[in-house]
Amino acid sequence: MQTQWVTEAANGYGQTIEVTRQLCCRQSKFQKIEVYETRKLGKLLLLDGIIQLTSYDEFAYQEMMAHLPYYAHGNPERILVIGGGDGGVLRELARHREPAVLDLCDIDSEVIRAAKEFLPEMSCGFDDPRVTVHIADGSEFIRRKPGYYDLVIVDSTDPGGPGAPLFGEEFYADLKRALRPGGVVGTQAESPWLLPDVVRKLVDAARSNFKFVDYAAISVPTYPTGMIGCCVASDDKILTVPAALPDPELAGKLRYYNEKVHEAAFAKPQFVSGLLG
User: Fold this and answer.
1) Is 57 a catalytic residue?
2) pLDDT tens for each residue of 164-223
3) The pTM of the whole model exceeds 0.85
4) Structural domain tally of the chain?
5) DSSP code of 148?
6) Of 155, 158, 174, 214, which one is the catalytic site residue?
7) What is the dihedral of CA 34, 38, 41, 44, to 10 degrees?
8) Which domain covers residue 40, as residue numbers?
9) Which residues are CB-contacts of 140 (< 8 A; sequence separation ≥ 6)?
10) What are the DSSP E strand ranges found in 39-143?
11) What is the rounded distance in angstroms from the CA atom of residue 164 to the CA atom of residue 242?
12) Could you tell me if 117 and 105 are in contact, meaning their C-beta atoms sit under 8 angstroms apart?
C-alpha cells in the first residue's frame, strides 16, 4: 500500500502525519472539514488544513481546557463552551454532576455532524441531557447572555479562520459581562513558540478586562511545537491554585489533569514571562 501523509503547513512551520485512509472531506459554509485514520495516532481531525486533534493525545487538551478553568472556579453551575464542535471539552465537563446548564455554541453545524459520525469517542459529550446546542457566532451569542454563566470556555480554532473574532479585546469585554459574580473564563491561547504575537495580544485583551489573568501551558505532541496554551481570567479568583479538586472516582479516570499539573502549568520559561510582561 502506498504511504500517504497529511501535512499541516502554516505560520512558517509544518507537521506531518501518516494516514491510511480518508473518512471525511467536506466543505462547509465556513471551513474545510477532514477526518482521517492514521497509522500511529488513531483518528485525525483537520479544519482548513489545521490539526485539531488526534485520538492519541486529544485527552491532554480536552482535560486541561475543561478541568483547569472548572477547578479554578470550584463549583460552576452554568457553563458555556464556545466552539468545541468536536464535543471533547463538552465530554469532559459532562463528567461533573454539579452543573445544571451545559451550553455549547458553535458557528458550524457541519463540524458537530462530522464529529457525531466519525468521532463518537469525542461527540459522546452531546448525549448528556443537560446539553443545549446553539448554532451561532459565539462572539454574538455571548452578548445575549449578560450575567448568566459561571464559566465560559472558548475552544476556538486558530485566529485566521472562523475563530478570528474570539481573540480581540471587545470579545473579552463581552465575556466579562456574561459572567455571574465569581465567574471564570478559559480560552484557547495558542503557542508562544509559534504565534507569540497572538499570545501576547490575547493575554493583553484579557488583562484589559479582568483583574486576575494567567497563561497555562498544555503538552499536546501532535500540535505544532508540541504545546498550546489556555488563558484563564477572573475578577474574583486566583486561578493558579485549584479552588476544588476532583473526587476520587473522577480523579481515577483522568489521564492528564491533576492538582499538581494545574499549578505547574502556570510555571513559565523566562522567554514566556518576558513575552507576557
Assistant:
1) no
2) 667 678 899 999 999 999 999 999 999 999 999 999 999 999 999 999 999 999 999 999
3) yes
4) 2
5) -
6) 155
7) 0
8) 4-54
9) none
10) 43-47, 50-54, 78-83, 101-106, 131-135
11) 30
12) no
